[in-house]
Amino acid sequence: MDRSIINKLLVLSAGVFVLGGCTVDQEPKEIIRIGHNQSGNHPTHLGMEKFEEYIEDELGEKYDVQIYPNELLGTQTNMVQLTQTGAIEITVASNSILETFNPKFEIFNLPYLFESEEDYHNVMNDSSITDELFLGTEGSGFVTKAWLDAGTRNFYLRDTVVETPEDLAGKKVRVQQSPTNVRMMELLGGSATPMGFGEVYTSIQAGIIDGAENNELALTENGHGDVVNYYSYTQHQMIPDEVIVSTIFLDNLSEEEKIIFDKGFKLMQEVQHESWGEKVSEAIDTIQTKQGVEFNYPDVSIFREAVLPLHEETLARQPELRNIYKIIEEKNKK
Fold first, then answer.
1. End-to-end Cα spacing for the chain
2. Are 34 and 90 in contact (CB under 8 A)?
3. DSSP label at residue 138
4. How far apart are CA 221 and CA 213, in angstroms?
């Protein structure tokens, strides 16, 4: 664990205690820390703010919810580790990151797993599919209490329009820190460069990498559109973000409190989903009119064909995922 992150948490905890105005006959409030890697204007943060408002309205005498955006508490991997130990109560982590903690999460990282955004949402909202994964990490120190929309991932490069996989040959492209994403780039002919989200802007700007792959909000909310020229709609992945919660924290809640927190997580998810489409529409306008990034729409079937071997590789390595995979295939056909 990064010692600087631990020290930062200790300083924050000390500061919170002092600022809390605790007196001799007043119990200090319990701090609930929420960490994520997005900006304060992102749909994820908006959902968190609604969660904070709800919890403090219901349980404000006991709990103080504090949100830390922009990787203030470390990278996603750091924050997941801190959540496992109970140092952070709640973290938003990409499904890609979680596969390194539980390989079953690989299923939702597969490229071109879903035929449409509607199919994606139908699957993620089906607890008969997701519970096995979301609640199956209790032994790792956390469980998933909500899933957040992260849109469709596409490639964006500084100097290259991506029309075919051949355009990625020799290009250093940032991917999330997961074996599935690294293998996907290998099949597409690019050079996968796993790194934390907070490093992407300066790495593209300095020429360390040629570009990255993400949704449109990465270009506006995180400024990546200022350092790239092309955004190519390959639509290769729809990967959710998961709201993971420390089991240490959950185990200390009363049954009544658990019900209130579950309602809060549901509200967080609803607000995040509702604001997603609006924010993406705003981002597309900004990308084209203010950042001057050029959009292109390649034939995705070429990319799909190139990465489909990854599906069978994953299922051969994890045959227990075949049932979930089959259910998703059936939902795609409806």
1. 45
2. yes
3. G
4. 15
